[in-house]
Specification:
Elements: H1 4-33, H2 37-63, H3 83-110, H4 114-144, H5 148-158
Length: 179
């Protein structure tokens, strides 16, 4: 059985993951409004990934006999001066999520909660990828600066991203889903 402290921290992490999805949805809408539909697609795929992350935590709590406790989400920012500013926020946010996952890992180790520790390893690896992706995009945006042709190519490349995780959770997380 999961401890009360771990239960509370995972419930808080569900909120963090749901907020992440909300943030990426807001960013996707902003890009759509600017005609950057490829970047909007990339961000909407990210929205679905964050929902998948939240649902993995949700199902883990249920599997552990824990009570899921959902709370209100804070409102994400909805406007950004530049796409570079937007992705600077993405990296900052992913750094925050990594810190949250690390806190969960630290608690699992402290409590000798081997099940939670094993479960959380997937998130550790996922956060390495999330931070790497955001840093690479920021690097590319640094080269583009204000070049319209570069931004068009950047946007087109972002639009090639496809969803690689489950997005229908009506039957829980399926065994074939990533992670």
């Amino acid at each position: 059985m999961i401890s009360k402290k771990m239960l509370d921290l995972i419930n808080a992490q569900i909120n963090e993951e749901m907020y992440s999805a909300y943030l990426y949805m807001a960013m996707s809408a902003e890009c759509s409004n600017r005609g950057l539909n490829g970047t909007a697609t990339w961000l909407m795929v990210q929205f679905h990934e964050e929902m998948f992350h939240a649902m993995k935590f949700y199902n883990y709590l249920l599997d552990q006999g824990g009570k899921v406790s959902l709370v209100a989400l804070k409102t994400p920012p909805i406007t950004f001066k530049t796409v570079k500013e937007m992705f600077t926020q993405v990296l900052k946010h992913e750094n925050h999520i990594t810190a949250c996952i690390n806190n969960l890992i630290d608690l699992a180790i402290k409590e000798k909660d081997h099940a939670s520790h094993a479960f959380l390893q997937w998130y550790v690896n996922e956060q390495v990828e999330e931070e790497k992706n955001a840093a690479e995009i920021l690097s590319q945006l640094g080269y583009i600066k204000e070049d319209a042709a570069g931004m068009i190519m950047f946007d087109k490349d972002r639009g090639a991203r496809i969803l690689g995780v489950q997005s229908d959770f009506s039957h829980g997380i399926l065994p074939t889903a990533a992670g």
